[in-house]
Design brief:
The structure is a single chain. The protein is an alpha/beta fold. It folds into two domains: about 160 residues, Lysozyme-like; about 160 residues, no CATH class. It contains 17 helices and seven strands. The protein has a five-stranded mixed sheet with strand order 1-5-4-7-3. The chain binds zinc ion (ZN). The site of zinc ion (ZN) has 3 residues, from loops.
Length: about 350
């Protein structure tokens, strides 16, 4: 049973159904047309009511959040099978029952927090494009209803921006996210001799010396390469490799800049249809955590499937995708091997 950690409690609704194997990839905020706590609304959904309504979550005028239908099930909220089998639906209390059906700041804040939590866990962003194909949808597109009320409907743009910018803030990467200590060990023989495969020592060496010395320690960011292809950064910082790293983490990732021979964010998005909606930061993270092992197209200058055609490498590395990346970075490019 999947229930957000942000929920204050769970009261099982009387009516709900199966998602029929659909993945959660949408959020549909509704309004209650009532001024209730979230708990009161969840209690309402335990009774037999006309239309058999329910919702995954109910947020009260004071901001309390109650689960009524666990996330792996389809709540009966939006009068549309396709939408509800892909959406987490959220009932929001009104703060007044007069037009335009406002909601309180407490309700708004809980709604934003819950949306951020859902997007993070299911790996999608809010996309409000005014029709049901986006990931932020509204009830009135599917049924003859005012829901979510003109007040909340008027803040969908803001909801999209607020939630996505919160996701971006959570996605600011640090050096520990992009550094690979096995790569650092393998590519820097003097460091390997000094530290052995002791990760604490390797890490200490990296942050105290390696970064400043412009050594290679990451598959997505090579400091010398970064300065060479980003002339504005080089102009500002010369050959200060620490500053190059700081610039990359603070701006370069977000801006999708070229930062390594084997990975390029816009190319990665363009060549991998399942990653189209990812932000630049999410793509970098995705490549490090998954993509480098998945035989994907990741750079216009390095194609891992092409590189695998070398028989000597194939004999040595078999199906270990990441080893081909490592080999090219340490040896292949210097040996003048072809990788595209
Ligand atoms: Zn509704």
């Amino acid at each position: 049973m999947t229930i957000s950690k942000l929920a204050d409690g769970y009261i099982e609704a009387k009516y709900y159904g199966s998602r029929s194997n659909n993945k959660v990839c949408k959020i549909t905020p509704h309004h209650m047309s009532a001024r209730w706590t979230g708990k009161r609304c969840a209690e309402y959904f335990t009774k037999a009511n006309k239309g058999k309504p329910s919702a995954n979550y109910c947020i009260g005028y004071d901001g309390d959040i109650w689960c009524s239908v666990p996330e792996e099930y389809r709540a009966y909220t939006s009068a549309n099978f396709d939408n509800d089998s892909q959406a987490i639906t959220i009932e929001c209390s009104n703060s007044s029952l007069n037009y335009p059906y406002p909601i309180s700041e407490a309700t708004w804040n809980s709604l934003v927090n819950l949306c951020v939590d859902i997007c993070e866990r299911y790996g999608f962003r809010l996309d409000y494009n005014g029709n049901p194909s986006g990931s932020l949808t509204m009830h009135r597109w599917f049924a003859n209803t005012d829901c979510p009320g003109d007040y909340l409907a008027g803040r969908f743009d803001e909801l999209e921006q607020e939630v996505n910018s919160r996701l971006d803030q959570k996605n600011i990467l640090k050096i520990q996210d992009i550094a690979d200590l096995d790569l650092y060990y393998d590519i820097n023989q003097d460091v390997a001799q000094k530290c052995g495969r002791d990760y604490n020592k390797l890490w200490e060496h990296l942050v105290n010396c390696g970064v400043k010395e412009g050594r290679t320690y990451s598959y997505v960011f090579q400091p010398k390469y970064y300065l060479q292809v980003n002339k504005d950064v080089q102009k500002a910082y010369g050959n200060n490799y620490q500053k190059a790293l700081d610039h990359y983490l603070a701006f370069g990732i977000k801006e999708g800049r070229r930062s390594g021979i084997e990975y390029y964010t816009p190319y990665y998005r363009d060549r991998n249809g399942d990653l189209k909606k990812f932000s630049n930061g999410e793509l970098v993270k995705h490549f490090i955590m998954f993509g480098i092992n998945e035989w994907r197209e990741t750079s216009p200058d390095f194609n891992v499937k092409k590189y695998r055609e070398y028989k000597d490498l194939q004999n040595a590395f078999k199906d270990d995708c990441k080893k081909y990346y490592k080999h090219y970075l340490i040896f292949g490019q210097n040996e003048g091997r072809k990788a595209i």
